[in-house]
Each structure stands twice: as C-alpha cells, then as structure tokens.
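Final report, Chapter 2: Outcomes

The project's central promise was a pipeline that accepts a single protein chain and returns its three-dimensional structure in a standardized token representation, suitable for archiving and comparison. That pipeline is now operational. To close this chapter, we reproduce one record exactly as it appears in the project archive, with the input sequence first and the structure output second.
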Amino acid sequence: MRKLLLLTAAVGLFAGTALAQGNDIEIVFAEDRVDHATFDPRVTQSRHEEQVITQVFDQLLAADENGTIHPGLATEWQVSEDGLSFTFQLRDDVTFHDGTPFNAEAVKFTFDSIVDPDLGSQGAVDIIGPYASTEVLGEHEVRVTFSRPYGAALGAFAESELSIVSPTAVESLGNDGFAQAPVGTGPFKFIEWEKGKQVVLERNDDYNWAPGYMNHQGPSNVSRAVVRFIPDASTRVAALEAGEVQVSELVPALDMRRLSSGDEFDTIVGNAAGLPFGALFNTSKGPFADKAVRQAFMHAIDRPRLAENLFFGFADPAFGPISSSTPSYWAGNDAYYGFDLDKAGELLESSGWKLGDDGVRYKDGEPLSIYFPSLLEPDTAVAVQADVKRAGFDVRVENVLKARQDELIFANDYDMLVIRWVSNDPGVLSIPFHSRNIVEPGKFKFNWARYADDGLDKLLEDAESAATPDDRDKLYGAIQKQVMDEGIFLPIHNQVQTIAHSSDLTGFRLAAGQWQLRFYEVTRTN
C-alpha cells in the first residue's frame, strides 16, 4: 500500500477520472512532451501539438486513418483540366467556436496567411506546396490555384496543418495570441493551456458536421478532455494503472504486452506513414561532410537487431527515407547499408581514418568524434552510439529539449540530428531534402543535413507535379535512390504510436498518418 501511495504522489494526483453520466464522459490523455510552443495549425511542425489541433480543427477534406479522402468542410470539388485549380463547394451550416460563420473568406484568409512570411509557418508552408492564390467565388464557393500542377494537393487539403482557422480570432488576438488560444470548427473547443502541465478541451455542443466516415453525427459523448503532459514513460503507465489518466501514448513495448494480456486495458498500435524515425547527417562540416564516412556509419548499425531489442516486435527496422507504408515507397531501399563492420572499416580506411589503440579512429591526429544531440528516444540514440563504437566512431550523445535543439540547428553546431514526420504523402521528402529548406538565420526549416543539389531539387519539384501515378512513383523512387546513394539520412525504425487505454472506453480512432488519437467517437463499453 505504501508503494501505491508513493506512486500516486509521484504522478501528481491527476484529476479527471473518466465518468459517464449520459453523454458526459471525461477523459485524461497522457502526452509525452512538455515543451509545446503553439497550437496554431498554420505554424506548428510538431505532431505532439497536433494531438490537440486534431480535436479543435477541421479541414476542407477529411482523411481517415488509412489516408482515404472524404468530404470535410467542402462537400464537393472539381479539378481544372490543367490541374492547377481546385474549386470547392463548402458547407453552409458550420460556425467557428467564436461564432464566426465558416465561409469562403475563411478559407482564403487561412491559405493566404500560411504563405505570409510574417506568420513564420514551419510545416503548412511546405504542405501547401506551390500555392498561388485563393479566389472567393461566392459565400460558400472557393477556387484554390497553384503555380504548377500539384499532385499531392487533395491529400494536402486533408492535412491538419491546412486546418481552417477563424479569421475573427486571428485578427483579434494576432498570430502570437492565436497560437495560445486557437479557434477552429472541430468537435472540441480549446479552453485552457497550463504550460508544461496540460491543455483542457470541452465539447463543442453545436458540432454537427463530422466527416461521413465517422460512425455518428452530432456532438461527441466526451464532454471534457484533458491532454496532460507527462514526459516519463513509467510515470505515464503508472498514472494509467492508477486510474488517474484513461489513455497513455508511447507506452513502452514491454508494458504494451503486459497491459494487453489482462482485462483492464486495451491497446492500439499505429504504424505511421511518412519519414521513419532516423537521423540526418550534417553534410556541411565535420566528419559527415565526407560521403564515405556517412556510409560507413550506416553500415556499422545492425538495425533489425536494434529494433527488436528496443521494441520487441512492435516496430520494424527502416531502410529508406520514407516508411514502407508510405505511397511510392521504393523497394530498392531495402538493399542499402546492411550491417557490415568490415565494409564500414574499409570505407573509413579509404578516407584516412585509422584505428587507434583505444578503439577510436583518428585522422591527422583528430579523433572520429560525432556530436549527436537527441531530442527523441534517448535509448535509441544510446543504442546507435554503442553499435558504431565497434567501427571506431566516438559518438557523444546529449539528450536535449527542443529549445536547445533549435539553438544548435541555427548555430550549425551538431553532426547528426534525429527526425521523424507523420505524412500520408511521399511529398514529405521535400521537407528535409529540398535545398529551400536549409536553415537560415531567423527561418527555421528541416533540411538539417544542409544538403543542396539542383538535380534533387528538380526531382522533388517534378514529383509534386507528376501527371500520373506511375510518373509519380518513378520520380519519388529516383529521389529515394539519390538520398540513399548520398548517405544523407540514416533510417532507423518505422514510427509506431503505442497507446493503452482503459477498457471501459471504446471508439478511440487514429487520425490520418496513424499517430494522433481522435476523441470524438469515444463511448462507454458498458
């Protein structure tokens, strides 16, 4: 009993036990991050922030957990013969949480603001692609035009980053204020954000425009949802078992096995599409400016063994710059960079790195030292460190928070950085690999490899504009081949979202990309 009481104190006596009185369910969701910066869908690049955004906002089109496109805030759409314009017929019965009517002007305001440099968009500005303009054709009709054909457009219109925001709220609060108190049209209203602790959401009682693939219409049975920030995995699980939270994300694999074996909890595993969990090598400086060193590093890692040891079968090893569940995945990825210490040694020897008596390689008197600041999965970073040590790499792993990571990125003071990105479209490859996304002073971007190649840029742009699915597959295959040939990205394992929840609740549903969890359809099992 004393152990249980101490455990309860450690998790902070979380409030919000799930209750059901008619349709008044209250849930607490345990989230693993504490450093959220914005809940503006137009700005964020964090899938953790998107856990809240998913509940608060709607998009023109809706994508289910498998990425299938359905009508959303738009009921119909037509594509022009030249593929440049998309005309949408909009719902006429939708209002934002602040009472502002949803209409064509709101769509235009949202998309125009995304490409405004003053906003500082980090994710949506890439997802909206070659956006040119939005034209209001009527109160509930709008035409969106691109500067060149954009094959990923329909999927992009369903991404949470292109959620439609309330113009009234943005104009009243300003972009910075809106980031702290977002207003959408979704099934839940944003109520309160206690930074570093939790976000409180309440049901939107007026909600009656859920996408057709949902199992019901009208307001949710969940009256209140709290997203609680609990960074320690063991504490999240303890809170779940104590009944102080009803849902926990990123549950460790051994706990998933244990919890799923009984009757008190159910588990969900989301196999996310997009960029797998991996690392970008900094090609602009240091040892990884040499392609042979990058290739040697990848040959020195036994990825299947690493994935099995860390995830016990819940996550598969990754072999390419997009996961195998992402459309246009190139099967040739699987043949690259198998575990081969001899090959790693040959590549390093060819570049002048000689093995010293201490097991570290040296060149011109300098050790083969790698600085690896890691924001995510510290156990994975340490496992990589141990694997490559056998080849003579001296890797210094530092667990960092996002603010520190961003500081290092702007200062170009790192050798490799972990990255992952949930997306249903291979166009996500532009985000870390197009040269326009190399970080500049005051402009946060995601080409942390700092790799620039005109040929790769053209392939990425041509793939966005591909006329047929076959052309698209060929172009994205060529892109993946170049990324792997150049050794600028280390795939480690496919992304998995491991969730456990109280078995007296059902109806949890993964959002598109299979990472965020939707609360809208949750009901009691008894």
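Archive annotation: Residues 1-32+187-272+498-526 form a domain with the D-Maltodextrin-Binding Protein; domain 2 fold (CATH 3.40.190.10).
This record, like all others produced under the grant, will remain available to the consortium after the project formally closes.
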